[in-house]
Write a structure and sequence with these properties.
Layout: E1 2-11, E2 18-28, E3 31-42, H1 46-54, H2 60-84, E4 92-95, E5 98-103, E6 108-112, H3 115-122, E7 126-128, H4 132-136, H5 146-152, E8 158-162, E9 165-172, E10 175-183, H6 185-193, H7 204-208, H8 213-220, H9 235-242, H10 251-272, E11 277-281, H11 288-297, E12 301-303, H12 307-326, H13 334-337, E13 347-348
Parallel strand pairs: 1-4, 4-7, 8-11, 11-12
Antiparallel strand pairs: 1-2, 2-3, 5-6, 7-13, 8-9, 9-10
Helix pairs in contact: 2-3, 6-10, 8-10, 10-11
């Protein structure tokens, strides 16, 4: 039996903040178990939120500066977390970084936050840049969490994450497949912001709006939804395909329409793959209106876990991916990303 202690760092496209998750992983033969020991979300300052949101428009020089600055920021916050929680057992820090560009068809993806800067601030082994190798191998570079679903959460038929984008992983013909379904919080949070809210709490704003069925139909007809998995989404797709459809009308109505759209697309996948039970995590699990909408459209049993799993499952799994990387074990599944082969991904510093 082997035991590993790791910290996972995750920053999602919805810009909720930096998730830090300290966990213990135990391996007994081929069986893995985990325990979340400490976790915290650090909200971004207005400046950091603006920089991360607008980084896609930065010049090369400014983006390189941000990559370095954000790496030191991650290192500082991780070191503060280590001291605050008196963490002495720590084998590694595993950082997802923050996605700026994601264009797998063009063979590149970029998650900023230089792991070497994290190493300098913490003096710990750091694993980072998990997606680039998969993209170079012909994969989508996403989703990556299915390795954790396969080894840590395999009691569920499927695992569904409702973050900036919704993505799902499930078993088919003995293989774990996974793909992005549709945007969720990356749109909903932006619309809520226009109403002076950070997010649509419980979906109450959407509940007060009126669905625009013409817009709903246009959204549901987008080409991405006709493509076969594996497939993934990025901010570029939002900017080119979704935002031009979002006409000038009340934000409440747009929230109602997009919440319905997300529920339609998610329920369609649950029904298509005849999922018996699904574990739902990510910030969208708290959106009771969205969950109600999904439940109304599918026979699948919806499982909402404890808060630590809802909020920190992705950070937990990136910590786990770092553990696998240090053991030189495969941590990316080609059946999920579409790459040439399963592989052990991540730069070690």
């Amino acid at each position: 039996m082997s035991t590993f202690y790791a910290i996972g760092l995750m920053s999602g496209t919805s810009l909720d903040g930096l998730d830090i998750c300290y966990s213990r992983f135990t391996r007994d033969n081929s069986n893995w178990t985990f325990e979340i020991l400490k976790c915290e979300t650090i909200a971004y300052s207005t400046n950091w939120e603006d920089d991360l949101k607008n980084a896609i428009h930065f010049s090369s020089e400014r983006l390189l500066q941000l990559n370095s600055d954000y790496g030191f920021y991650l290192g500082e916050k991780t070191q503060e977390f280590i001291i605050k929680n008196s963490i002495s057992n720590l084998d590694l820090i595993s950082s997802h970084g923050h996605t700026v560009f994601h264009q797998p068809k063009n063979k590149f993806t970029l998650q900023i936050g230089d792991g070497r800067a994290i190493r300098i601030k913490t003096n710990k082994t750091v694993v980072y840049d998990f997606r680039s190798q998969d993209v170079l191998l012909g994969g989508n570079g996403a989703p990556l969490v299915p390795i954790g679903d396969e080894l840590l959460f395999n009691e569920f038929d499927a695992c569904l994450n409702l973050g900036g984008f919704s993505n799902i992983s499930l078993k088919r013909d003995g293989k774990r497949i996974a793909f992005d379904i549709c945007p969720v919080n990356i749109i909903l949070n932006d619309l809520a912001l226009k109403l002076g809210k950070k997010y649509d709490e419980n979906g109450d704003l959407a509940r007060s709006g009126i669905i625009d069925y013409e817009l709903l139909n246009e959204l549901n007809q987008l080409n991405f939804y006709q493509e076969k998995a594996p497939k993934s989404l990025g901010i570029e797709w939002i900017n080119s395909q979704v935002l031009p459809l979002m006409k000038n009308q009340k934000s409440e109505n747009l929230l109602a329409t997009f919440t319905e759209h997300s529920a339609v697309q998610i329920a369609k996948i649950l029904e298509e793959f005849e999922i018996k039970n699904v574990l739902i995590t990510g910030g969208g699990a708290y959106n009771s209106y969205l969950i109600e909408k999904i439940k109304a459209k599918t026979k699948t049993e919806i499982q909402i876990p404890a808060r630590e799993i809802i909020e920190y499952k992705e950070a937990l799994i990136f910590a786990f991916m770092g553990v696998l990387r240090l053991q030189n074990l495969n941590n990316v599944l080609s059946s999920a990303t579409g790459s040439l082969t399963d592989h052990s991904s991540g730069l070690i510093c």
